[in-house]
Amino acid sequence: MSGAKARGGARASAEHVMAPAVLFAIPVLKLAWTLGGGDAARDALSAMGPANWVDVVIGMFLAEPVLAAVLAAVACHLTYAYRAAHGGAARHRERALITTAAAASIVPLAAGVVVGAFNGLWWGVASGALGYLLRLGVVAEYRTGARSADTGHRTGRPATSFRPRAAEAVRVAALLLALVVLPALAVSAALNGRSWTSVLSCDVNTGTGPQRARVVELDRSAPGVVGWDLAAREVVSGTNCAVEADDVIRPPWWRS
Fold first, then answer.
1. Residue 9: pLDDT above 70?
2. Average pLDDT value for residue range 79-99
3. Cα 50 from Cα 172, distance rounded (Å)
4. pLDDT reported for residue 15
């Protein structure tokens, strides 16, 4: 039983580390691949500044509905599982099931609203429903005794009936989403060659006189923008900018 607890704890730790790692590392990969090389990514980050760093994260996840839905569902599960394992389940073990289920729905509802606002109604419904299902799986683990409310660890009790088996299936699904699906979707989005922000056609001057150039917006500064000149491969100031419909910067990694 102690071996099962150790393996369960290792998987839980990996699950909690993966989502922050994706949020930290994937935007860097997005910059490096899309703009082409480490020097370009460093120059672009310097031009953006720390205040605009989160724009890369937001731009990536809002432009990819599947990624946004999976991230929202994983976040719903991780936050609930963490709180349950650190005293939440013990404090609420005598609470009625309907009350626990209702409380578990609050964050998934909020996540669904956010995803739906940027990616459409049905993406919001899907992400909220998936996040809620994963939270109910955590509730079921504690209610069936598969996990101890006092320690948060798995008890090693075999799943012999429908409810424990259903809770185990949801737990495995949550692990797969956090450890396999989310990283795969994030890497795919980072290497798809599309910009995370607006692609503009601007007047720029790189020392040879004013000319129109295709620019990736990095920051807004009156009277124009600070952007990455795709042809000159440098940070420039652009004015008289117009948004382009095409946000593809380069072919995706799997076609290059």
1. no
2. 84
3. 37
4. 67
Per-chain mean pLDDT for the chain: 85
Of 46-50, 85-89, 188-192, which range is least confident?
A: 46-50
Dihedral class, residue 78 (left if φ above 0, else alpha if ψ from -120 to 50, else beta): alpha
Residues 110, 116, 118, CA angle at the centre, nearest 5°? 115
Report the C-alpha gap between 60 and 44 in whole angstroms. 16
Is-cis flag, bond preceding 108, omega within 30?
A: no
DSSP state of 132: H
Q: Strand, coil or helix: what is 153?
A: coil
Closest CA to 201 of 251, 246, 250: 246
Confidence (pTM): 0.82
SS (H, E, C) 29-92: HHHHHHHCCHHHHHHHHHHHCHHHHHHHHHHHHHHCHHHHHHHHHHHHHHHHHHHHHHHHHHHC
Q: Give the torsion through C-alpha atoms of 81, 86, 91, 92, to 10 deg.
A: 0
Q: Give me the mean pLDDT over the 189-193 stretch.
A: 91
- Residue 248 structure tokens: 């593809």
Q: At 156, is the pLDDT very low, low, confident or very high (cuts 50, 70, 90)?
A: confident
Q: Tokens for 66? A: 């599947």
Q: Nearest to residue 100, comparing CAs of 69, 139, 127?
A: 139
CA angle 83, 64, 203 (to 5 degrees): 125
